[in-house]
Amino acid sequence: MARLAPSGEGRSLESLRTELDSVSAVDRKPFSQLIILMGAAALVAIIAIASVLLTFDNRAAGTGILRGQRVTTDIARLLILVHRAESSQRGFLLTTNRAYLDLYHDSIEKVGPALETLTESTRNDGSLATEALNLRTLVNAKIGEMEEVLSLFQGGRKNEALGVVKTNAGKNLMDQIRESTTTMWQVSTGQTELRIDTWRHKNNWLLAVQLGAAVLVLVVSGLAIWSGIRHTRGLQRTQATLLRANELLEERVVARTVDLQEANEEIQKFAYVISHDLRSPLVNIMGFTAELGTIRRETAQLLGLRAESGLARRPAEKVDHEFGEALDFIQQSTRKMDRLISAVLKLARSGQRRFHYELINMNVVMDEIAATLKHRTGETGAEIAIEPLPPLVSDRLAVEQIFGNILDNAVKYLDEGRLGRILVRGRTIGRVVIVEVEDNGRGITHEDLARVFDLFRRGGKRDRPGDGIGLAHLKVLVRRLGGRISCRSTPGVGSVFSVLLPQAAPSPATDAPDAESTRR
């Protein structure tokens, strides 16, 4: 019978449970540490935002500095071009050398684009933009003055050209141009210096923020490393404790499994003995009933129509009929009891047979089963269609018994009113093979479907031979193989039997895997 667990097992598991609780209590992070980490994360976020804002400000300041430098460059370039044009004009007037005239025209051509560039550079600065418009007016006036003098000189009117020069109008315009460019230069330089100071100030702030971020990152990293080391050590202690607990639990499971196996073997032996003990008297009863039949015939021959003295006289035919009817009833009952006890014995023996696992070609198995039913399907014109099935590793005899019984029932309970069709299909889901047998037979009612796999239960009309043990036997075989069997049916439409089996053989430690684990 079942063994008792060692007395130390309970205490060991209880001590391990206490140890796990203590480890969990030690490794539980305090609320303050979580607050610190959240605060550090918030500071990191603030520093990151500040760094981004300061970076954009520095970029804007740098752009302003470049724009100011571009304005001063444009002012200097424009002033140089005007000076070169004036000097070239005077050189030509004094020497009539065409080289001075070419240099003059080159400078005048470049003054216009230089004015446009300066105007565009100062467009977004109010004071500089106003001064740039004033400078444009002065430069255009100066160019007009020089063009007038040059035109008079080239037209042979040298005295009139010298007269225009002597009015000092050109000198006054040049002085105003210098004053205007000097003003713009000073304003632009002052703005550039302010922008440089702002850029330096914000750059210092950015450097400080980045240093603070680096220090904070180091602090947070240190806290994270410390917390990770502490948590890892706790996990290691917990893992070691769980490992010891699993070892104890495995020992207990092995002990309980042995107990269950012994109990199962005792139950099977009990069923086996009971079956034999019940069958033995039935053999005698069947023998004596056969003997009574012989006596009845001999008595009828000896008595004829006469009756024994003291008994009521009845017709011999009636006596003979009742005697035969009672005898037939006894014989039918004993034969039925013999079949039922044989079924119980068959179930008991099926639980004792050890399975031999091998790779099975399911299409070959189904073809062989269909071949054995060919004479029955040929009589009714029924068809058995077998789609490609996945292979599996299982006990071949058990698989043949399972699907042989299912296909036999499908052929047996086909609807005579329509052409029978039976379809066998299969698929693989993970490590499980599902084989379905679908027919268009009579179908099973909802009430009978709930007990179709029960022992000695049959559904529908009893117009086909059977004792109601086939599906019960299949359920036992499928369960022992580590699978499960189910059925769905609609009366008048047909039935579908689904058999779920593991695709691989069970581990050597067990005879068959658990059906629940196979379903998972």
Could you characterize the architecture of this molecule?
- With 520 residues, the chain is an alpha+beta fold.
- Among the domains are: 88 residues; 165 residues, Histidine kinase-like ATPase, C-terminal domain (Heat Shock Protein 90, 2-Layer Sandwich), CATH 3.30.565.
- The chain has 13 helices and seven strands.
- The strands form two sheets. A five-stranded mixed beta sheet has the order 2-4-5-7-6.
- The longest helix has 135 residues.
- It is elongated and about 185 Å long.
- The chain starts with 6 loop residues before the first helix and ends with a helix.
In short:
With 520 residues, the protein is α+β, with helices and mostly antiparallel strands.
Number of helices: 13
Shape: elongated
Radius of gyration: 56 Å
Structural class: alpha+beta
User: Can you say what the CATH homologous superfamily of the domain at 354-518 is?
Assistant: Histidine kinase-like ATPase, C-terminal domain
- The residue fraction in helices comes out at over 70%
The H-and-E topology, N to C, reads as: HHHHHHHEHHEEHEEHHEEH
Distance between the termini: 32 Å
* Main beta sheet: 5 strands, mixed
Report the uncertain regions. Answer: 1-11, 305-311, 509-520
Tell me the name of the CATH class of the domain at 354-518.
Answer: Alpha Beta
Number of strands: 7
CATH topology of the domain at 354-518: Heat Shock Protein 90
Strand content: 5-15%
Q: Averaging pLDDT over every residue, what do you get?
A: 75
CATH-level-2 architecture of the domain at 354-518:
2-Layer Sandwich
